[in-house]
């Protein structure tokens, strides 16, 4: 689109002192004549672009305008670049790569060494261990559906193992605790639901379109059910010495107290099948003390595991 090209040219010129028209034409796959028409349009919009002829000539933005309109500091540019690099570790996108390139073009040659030091100071690799090709393919399909506002169908297995067909209006892809989720309006339930991508199968983008609904992502709407007071249970755990590092990592140091040399963890979680499996994964490092019914349920599940291996 022309507006995208105009914006990209402005960003490029703010970051570089001078560029050749032929270079811009090759970059955007248009003619040199089109580039000069773009420059005229940018000038009419009030952004002073100057052109000079000759061997050392080219297209540039007025120096005073460049200095007065550098809206982002070096630290802010480095923060944006680090964020884009980190997201790219789990989701590869052409737009992220293009955005990174534009960000780097905003940094002058004199600042580039310092900029690289700042962006190399932090890196957040939020991708899982190993290649997750199937997840990436699902994300690409869902991203396409969100962009085009098309309804998506898929087969979904919930946490209880129940499988069914779902028709949804996809709104947002969410990365949480190392897993990708789809936040979508379920047409069957007539409400927003949270779907884990790894549980989705036969993802299909339909030709039917939808009108995007109003949501406020800053409120983390998918966490409302999790944190609902009537859904939470206080649990007291006995932590064996070998399990203290594990408990500290999962529950936080502030959740641990010590009574006569014994480590006790006090935590609050929703009571469901996930909770029982979660407690089991600690093995012998942690023991549920309270409430009694959760202790009994974990005990029964542990016995079932033993029975499987004794067959």
From TrEMBL:
Keywords: Transcription, Transcription regulation. The keyword Nuclease does not apply. One of its GO terms (molecular function) is DNA-binding transcription factor activity. InterPro entries: CBASS_pafABC_assoc_protein, DeoR_HTH, HTH_11, PafC-like, WCX_dom, WH-like_DNA-bd_sf, WH_DNA-bd_sf, WYL_dom. Gene3D superfamilies: Winged helix-like DNA-binding domain superfamily/Winged helix DNA-binding domain. Transmembrane segments: none annotated. Residues 2-57 form the HTH deoR-type domain. This is Transcriptional regulator. It comes from Bacillus glycinifermentans.
């Amino acid at each position: 689109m022309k507006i995208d090209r105009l914006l990209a040219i402005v960003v490029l010129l703010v970051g570089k002192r001078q560029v050749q028209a032929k270079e811009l034409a090759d970059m955007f796959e248009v003619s040199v004549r089109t580039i000069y028409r773009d420059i005229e349009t940018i000038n009419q919009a009030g952004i002073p672009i100057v052109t000079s002829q000759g061997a050392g000539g080219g297209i540039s933005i007025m120096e005073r305008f460049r200095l007065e309109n550098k809206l982002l500091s070096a630290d802010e540019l480095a923060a944006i670049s680090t964020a884009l690099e980190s997201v790219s570790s789990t989701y590869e996108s052409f737009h992220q790569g293009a955005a990174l390139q534009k960000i780097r073009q905003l940094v002058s040659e004199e600042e580039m060494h310092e900029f690289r030091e700042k962006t190399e100071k932090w890196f957040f690799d939020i991708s899982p261990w190993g290649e997750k090709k199937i997840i990436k393919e699902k994300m690409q399909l869902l991203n396409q559906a969100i962009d085009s506002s098309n309804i998506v169908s898929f087969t979904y297995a919930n946490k209880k193992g129940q499988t069914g067909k779902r028709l949804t209006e996809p709104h947002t892809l969410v990365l949480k605790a190392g897993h990708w989720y789809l936040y979508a309006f379920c047409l069957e339930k007539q409400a927003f639901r949270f779907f884990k991508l790894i549980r989705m199968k036969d993802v299909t983008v339909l030709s039917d379109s939808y009108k995007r609904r109003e949501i406020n992502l800053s409120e983390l709407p998918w966490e409302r059910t999790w944190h609902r007071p009537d859904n939470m249970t206080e649990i007291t755990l006995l932590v064996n010495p070998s399990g203290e590092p594990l408990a500290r990592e999962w529950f936080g140091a502030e959740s641990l107290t010590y009574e006569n040399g014994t480590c006790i963890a006090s935590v609050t979680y929703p009571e469901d099948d996930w909770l029982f499996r979660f407690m089991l994964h600690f093995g012998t490092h942690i023991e549920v003390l309270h409430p009694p019914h959760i202790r009994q349920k974990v005990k029964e599940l542990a016995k079932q595991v033993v029975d499987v291996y004794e067959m």
